[in-house]
Structure formats: C-alpha cells, structure tokens
Amino acid sequence: LHLLFSSREGGGYTAERQYCRPEWAKMADISRAFVYSQEVCEARQKGMPIVALESTIISHGMPYPQNVETARKVEAVVRSQGATPATIAILEGRVHIGLDANALELLGKAGSTCKKTSRRDIAYVIANKLNGATTVSGTAFLASKASIPVFVTGGIGGVHRGGELSMDVSADLTELSQTGVTVVCAGVKSILDIRRTLEVLETLGVPVFAYGTEEFPAFFTTKSGCRAPFRADSPAVIARAIQAQRSLGLPGGLLVGVPIPKDEQANGMLVEQAIESALREADEKGVQGAETTPFLLKRVNELSKGASLKSNIALILNNAKVGAAISVALSKSAFQPFRSLPGPLGHEAAVLCVGGLAQDRISRPLSSQSLVLHTSTPGTTKEGVGGVAHNVGRALSVLGTQVELVSAVGNDDTGRLLIDSLRESGMTTEGIELAQTCNTASYNALHDETGDLHAAVASMSIFAEHPTEAHVSQRLNKCLSTANKVVVIVDGNVHRLLSLVCRIRCERNDRVKVVVEPTSIVKGSYLAKKMLDESLFVDVAKPNLEEACSMASTVNPAVSQQLKAYVAKRSSAVDWTEEDRVNLGMIGRILAPYIGLLIVTAGPKGAARVTGTEVTLYPSFRRRGETLQSGTTNGAGDALLAAFVSAIAKGTTVEDAINFGQKIAYEVISHSSLELAVKKTRTPNCASKL
What we know:
disordered N terminus, alpha/beta
C-alpha cells in the first residue's frame, strides 16, 4: 500500500460545480506530491529509525542488473541494523519516500534516461511529471521534508579538478550547509579535488567527521592525504553531535566519511591510473556538468576491469551499515524527529491547552418554537466563557489534572471579564497573554430548538498573532521545568503555532506529547496542510467525522469527492456501519505519516480509534436497556478529549482512556453540566483504576 499525496487530478470537481467546492479541498498544493511506502509509513508511526537512500546510484552509478541487486542489498543491510530504508526518487512527478521492487527495477532499467535530479531540478521534474533519480543534494532536501535525519550514499560531489578555473562545484556542498540531514558516505569521490572540497565545506560551516580514522577517506581508498577536522569512533558519538547541532539551532547537517573496508579496497595504484586516464578522456570529449561523474565512474570501471565497481558496491554496503547504526543511536538519544504515543505516559503529566479563549453568546428558540429565518423568534441567550482550549482546559481542571491555559485576550472589558472568570473557576491565568492592540475573541452562536448548532459567527482575529511563539515557548519550557512530562493540546484557532510545538517536541523527546483538536472543518484543513507542508508529526488528533474527512482530503485531494459523498449520505443512525469502517481506514492510511493516533467522534455513534489501517469502533456510552436517540451532542467532544487526556496523563491505557472519555461525554449530554458529569462518573482514582 502507498499513501498517495497527489495533485488535484481525480478530485472530480468541474467548473460548473466550483461554487460548492469546500475550502478544505482548495488548499492542496500541486507541487507537493508525496508517496510513502507502507514500510516507511509504519516506521514513522511507530517512531522507528529511518535511513534515506539516494536513487542516482541506481540509475547512473552502476550498470544493470548490478545496480538493482546492490540497491536491494543496501536496503537489507539497513534493515539488519534495526532501521527502515527509504530510497527516494521521483516517479511520474511524485516524490516517493521508499520504493517497492517494481520501482527499483524501473529505475535500474531506465538508467541514464531517468532525469538526474538535484535540488535545482526537483520543481521541474515534478511539474512535468517526469521520472527523476535524486542526487545527494536532491535526496538530502527531500529527506529533510520527510523528517528523515540520516542519509546514506556512496560518495558526495565536491570541487572538480580544475574547479578553481571552471568554478565547477557540486550543489551537494551547499545542500549540506543548509539542510539538517547527516550524510554518511565513503568520502568525496576520488575523481574530484578532495583538498579543495574540504576547504569549501569548512567555509560553509559543515562539520566533517572521519569514522574510525584521522584521515578523511578518498572513496576507493582510505588514504586521501587530508586530515579530517573531527574523528568519531562510534555511532553514539555522531548521534550526540547531531543532537547538539539541532539543540543549538545550527543550520545544515553533518558529513561522515566512512573508509572502505581494507580487505575490499581496489588496487590503489590501478584505480588511480584509471582515474587519470578517464579524466583525460573526459577533457578531450568535452564532458561537463552533471554528465561528468557518471562518465568518469563508467570509464574508471572499464579501465580498472571491474575492480572499481566491486569496491563501489563494498563501500556503499559498509556505509549503509554505519548509517543505519547512527540512525538507531539517534532514535535512542534525546533528539527524535517523530514518535507516536505508545500508551500510558507512566507518570502523571501536566497539560498545556494552547488556543482559543472567547466570550460565548449562545441563543436558541424556546423548545416550543421553531427557528424562523429573516425575523425574530422567542428564545433565550446565555453568555459565558468559551473557546475550545478553554473548554478542554476547564474540563481537565475539574477532572483534577494539572493544567494551564495558554491563550490571549485584548486590553478591553471583555478580556478583563474573562480573566476574572478564570480566577473564579480556580484556573491559573499565568498563561494568558495581554494583546494591547487586539480585541478579545467572541463567539456568537445560534442553535435550533433541539439545541444543535444552526449558525455561528466567530471573531477570532486575535489568534492570528497571539499568543506569540515567544510566549508559548516560555510557558511550555516553564512547565517542563516542574513536570516530568507535558501533554500539549493545540486547537485549530492557533494552527500557526503547531510548528513551534512540534519542534519543541522533537528537542524534548519523550517528555512532550502533542494533541491537536481541529475545532472546525476549515481549521482542520489548515492543520493538515501545515503537517503536509512541513512534515510535522503529532501524537494524537481528535477530529469529528467531517473534520477527519477534510483533513484527509487536504492531504490527498484525489479522495475528496469520495469522502464528500460519504459525509453527504451519512444517515442519522446511531450505530457504526461497515461503510464507516472502510472510510475511516482510508482516512487513517492517508493521515498516518502525520498523526500517530486518530480519535474520530461521530455524535451518537460514538468514537473510533484509528491507527494507520487499524480501526476500532467504540459505540457511544449508554445505560443498560437505553435506546440512544440522535440529538444534540454539543460540548461532548471537548469533554471527551479532556477526559481522554486526563486519563492518559495519569497512566491509563489508550483504550480505557477512550472509554472513560465516552462516559464523561455521555454524562455531559445527560446533565448539561460538566461538574455533574464528573461527579456522576468519577471515583477517587477513576482514571488509574479504569
């Protein structure tokens, strides 16, 4: 199975129907077309180490069938070390992160007819739906977009001999200085000027390590005559250096030169003679630019009678072994690019709710009246403190969980009223930022006579700028100074802050978990697009069914029509169906690279736990003999999320936490009061005893 993040083709929208196209289906960027292999997708979901591999070595580096055979051996070596291989290529304009057997064969047979794709060429290849074999620079760039921190190749490009006159310098060097991916190789290709290449890397600020030796390796031989700036004798040393680089916010990656095994070295003199002869031929024939390296490697192999190819295969296999070991060591260190929620946190964790705080005004007709448009209807209006982050935070507080609300109010009467209300309810106000030039958020809702939402106007412009990243970072770091672990809940009102929270999550490893609450169809799409664009990964998301469909359609517009039809024909039934399971499974497959666990709510039907392709359906809580009717479920979703996080923070399993959330949601609907719901449900240690 592949997760296809394709262009808009197949979406089924026509010009005549453009008016009805939902916002979340308009947000896909045609240039972002990713296909994750099932193996890579599962590794991301489980937080397993992943190693990126380039594809130019398949199409341009070796003849067929040795190229395909070598690619399979390299992937096998990576797996044998406990990591997952992700060979990267562009096929028919789509970026593939991980290739199956057919794709490897295609590249191997295509050879040089496949476009050699560096960073410069990526947009062109995608736009024209071509096949592209990625070079070191192209692979490093795409690996960074897929949050893969370690990349293994044969050798990197560098300054060509005579480069001081021709200015022929590989884009690999610049890419190393600006992309946070560690490149493991056998050094600079020996057909290049190694000394000048190392000088350029020094100028660009790229840390260069020699693995197990003082001398920087020269691809086919261990001797280059150039001392490496740094030496590393174990994968753990490299992992710590990567961690330090990221922690300091230094741009770029590391370069690790691994000497070819001594017993596999080609005869040094024979290969050097072949290189000199090949260089003369290239000069005589006018071979330049991107064609130079493939020409030279081919001629060196011919002139050395296959010795260089044998050595080439040996060194890439050895590089894969070392690179995979570094990736595994990195996955055990304090820096992890992604990791899904494994279950109970083990210790009671603090919770930060980041997002909306607003003044709510909710109007509805009297129960004996029907809502009539374009005129007034007798009814009632209630005012109170709202906002999704506030509602979830307040519920957590009532449930006895250590929680802080991080939000913002304007310097106005409404803002001061909200601050006073928070204090009266016993919640801390330290996390509330005062925005001097913005109005406090407000939410004005109109419900029908049954209590279901009919329409609403949300004035939330304050959240476009507040709370600021500096404020959120300060509150989160302070929370981490007093709590062992922190669960950060981000609501869709502040989707712009997701990058910051995910970055802190990476830096703090298992100490921070991220949960997102979309809050609406459009905001759910914003969150999904941000995760897609920046390759972000969150531990848990709790959308309702419509929001889940919008998020999946944003990631893969090709399924938007199918999911739109599914939502449109969804009946008012109160039980899950097989159609629900099938569509939820599709949504799970699409969102799995970005979300570890989906909790999808569906009103009276209940909730679904979706982890990749695995779907578990939980019917809504009901008492024995009770027949559940389709009706209002307002407030139940926020209560369910709060109860789930509260239980997880206290060490409960995911399954029991969902059941606990379902029961709290039921009691909220039954009593229209959070306090009564908790009193009805809670036992002295309810979460830990579930």
